[in-house]
Amino acid sequence: MTDPRHLRVDRPHDGVVLLTLDNPDQRNAMSAPMTAAWEETIGDLAADLSVRCVVVTGAGTAFCSGGDTTWIAGEPDAGVDRLRTRMLAFYRAWLSVRRLEVPTIAAVNGHAIGAGLCLALACDIRYAAAGTKLGVPFTKLGMHAGMAATHLLPDVVGPAAARDLLLTGRVVDADEALRLGLVSRVADADGFLDDVLDTAAQVAATAPIASRLTKVALRDGGHREFEAALQWEALAQPVTLATADLQEGIAASRERRAPRFAGR
């Protein structure tokens, strides 16, 4: 049965949380109930130290078709200030996934369009199922891009490809998305989610303190200046060298076994 909040939360592996956008009749459009549930759930996960990796996917045949157009165009007589306030709240609710300090993976199981693609871009890693379509056709709908598309897309694919996708509004298939760097891997649709969850379990098995600090370092494309990277790493690496997990990782390597990291 479809969750009335349009969001399912599961824990398929230790440390792994699976968030499923669950509004398949509308191709997982970002409904008001889904938006509220998403913001609440991300807040809960941010405070949960047992979480080590978060995977986002969609129910049915789509990842996410973007904002619910009925909601977007639901106030035709509203002024710019009212609409700006409403859209900022919507953007910030969905982009709250970027607050998570654990790695996030978008399992793009089907079409990711507009704000739906922006949600995937807000995750650290994107994997796509074969046959998937991805695009930001905002201008074809008569609107400017939203949901930080003009920041997230250039950060992921570079300015030239971002201009191409944003100004033409064209939709690309999974293979072209891979060539552009929009996704990191394309896999067969059969068993796709299981494969992504296996990868998430591998991520969750890494040292959590080191993983969180690495994610923070890579935020917004990593350190732009060489010296800034050196200064950060000269602090962050000693933080991890002082952990019990470092001793466990070295011992496990010597003993040729899987490490058991405790996050301390």
Structure report:
The protein has 264 residues and is α/β, with parallel strands linked by helices. The chain folds into two domains: 7-204, 2-enoyl-CoA Hydratase, Chain A, domain 1 (Alpha-Beta Complex); 208-255. The protein is 45% helix and 17% strand. The chain has helices at residues 32-46, 69-72, 80-94, 115-122, 149-157, 159-168, 174-180, 192-204, 208-218, 226-241, 244-255, and strands at 7-13, 16-21, 53-58, 62-64, 104-108, 111-113, 125-129, 133-135, 171-173, 185-187. The chain has a six-stranded mixed sheet with strand order 1-2-3-5-7-10, with helices on both faces. Strands 4-6-8-9 form a four-stranded mixed sheet. A hairpin with a 2-residue loop joins strand 1 (7-13) and strand 2 (16-21). One of its GO terms (biological process) is fatty acid beta-oxidation. Belongs to the enoyl-CoA hydratase/isomerase family. It catalyses: a (3S)-3-hydroxyacyl-CoA = a (2E)-enoyl-CoA + H2O; a 4-saturated-(3S)-3-hydroxyacyl-CoA = a (3E)-enoyl-CoA + H2O.
How is this fold's topology laid out?
Layout (H helix, E strand, L loop, with lengths): L6 E7 L2 E6 L10 H15 L6 E6 L3 E3 L4 H4 L7 H15 L9 E5 L2 E3 L1 H8 L2 E5 L3 E3 L13 H9 L1 H10 L2 E3 H7 L4 E3 L4 H13 L3 H11 L7 H16 L2 H12 L9
Helix pairs in contact: 4-5, 5-6, 9-10
Features:
single chain; alpha/beta; 2-enoyl-CoA Hydratase, Chain A, domain 1; 2 domains; six-stranded mixed sheet; 11 helices; 10 strands; Enoyl-CoA_hydra/iso; isomerase activity; Enoyl-CoA hydratase/isomerase family protein
